[in-house]
Prior knowledge:
The protein has 17 helices and twelve strands. It is of the alpha/beta class and about 400 residues long. It has one domain (about 20-400): Aldolase class I (TIM Barrel). The chain has an eight-stranded parallel beta sheet with strand order 4-11-10-9-8-7-6-5. Strands 1-12 form a two-stranded antiparallel ribbon. A two-stranded antiparallel sheet has the order 2-3. Flavin mononucleotide binds near residues 129, 275 and 331.
Amino acid sequence: MFKTLQSVMRFRPIEFDGDLRRLRRAVNVDGLRRIARQRLPRSVFNYIDGGADDELTMVRNQQGFEQIEFRPRVLCNIQEIDTSTTLLGKRLPLPLVFSPTGMTRAVTPGGEMDVARSTARSEIPYVLSTLSTCSIEEVAQGSSGPHWFQVYVWKDRVLVKELLDRAAQAGYEAIVITVDTTVLGNRERDLRSGFTVPPKLGLDTILDGILHPSWTWRFVRSKPILFSNVVGKSVADGNDPASLSQYLKDQFDSSISWKDIEWFQQHWNGPILIKGIQSVEDARLAAKAGIPAIIVSNHGGRQLDGAPPAIELIEPIADAVGSDLEILCDGGIRRGSDIAKAIALGARACMIGRPYLYGLATGGERGVDFTIRLLQEDLARTLALTGCPSVQEIGRDLVRIRP
Ligand SMILES: Cc1cc2nc3c(=O)[nH]c(=O)nc-3n(C[C@H](O)[C@H](O)[C@H](O)COP(=O)(O)O)c2cc1C
């Protein structure tokens, strides 16, 4: 009997590297999320995972993809699969861009640096947030890019201009102006946990820290988490425990309009993308303003709850302005098949936020590599199974909306 067992069974080698062990267990983005939830203090997990109000838009972002089905073709010779595309005139190995996420060092001490090194290896553009916890220069010096810089329109235009100049000097290729944050969304999970930078210590935070010793150990040994791009320049750069909500409330310019886009056009010599377009009307105005690419986004459901899922807006926006500008989208993309669906409906490329943060929490820089690999392999498999040999050949007839 032992001989029979020996002939059919092989022992799986024991994986001593904890990060690799966890990543192997994750299998997909949802698995990464589950592990991130175990590894991060509750307030940090809720900061990255949560949305606004009742989180309806956040949930529907993902559900929107469930409404789209493929129309697979067979006998198409898919021996060679090509996942590459072009965006803003440059070749990308994958139709994927990393969305900006503020305060990434709350997840791992490496934070934005871990993400930037990983995206640089895969030649995926990484959009650094204004509210990053590693500076514009640190990221540019520590990774080869491509880097884009996300700007919030702050009242202090001298400071905004200075950030643009620093990004240009550091070789950032494009700017992304986020326009859906004239006021901060009502993120109730953060309100409940009092999420602040730096964290305010209370009994609950201390208990949370004790329950997540590996995060706490790394956190206390690393440099403080600050809004690195504005350290010393802003009233609340994270040096005093101003709540994020108060900080942003003070900084955001709620008077922004299309006139301000002209201001950016005068002060940035390169591609400008507008992030947060949520209607055909605004997509038309962006095209009229000469914007080369828009990002159809509801901020991952973190701003206006009740905003439509980005995936549902792609087709009408592509029909209206698809020949005038390039369309990117984010919100709820969790699989390579989601990328294929968005492209079929008219997007040029997709963006992700939370998925790479879950990967980062699960396995640091290698966790981000893992997330990219998951999406790339999944996209390639989807192309193979739908009989479409390349991203370039994805057309509207690849999908249908479920009746
Ligand atoms: C933790 C976190 C921080 C974010 N910070 C920013 C930011 O600083 N600027 C911005 O334009 N969008 C920000 N976003 C929104 C993302 O850029 C993106 O639109 C969203 O995450 C996409 O949805 P997904 O997480 O479902 O992929 C943030 C999102 C998360 C989850």
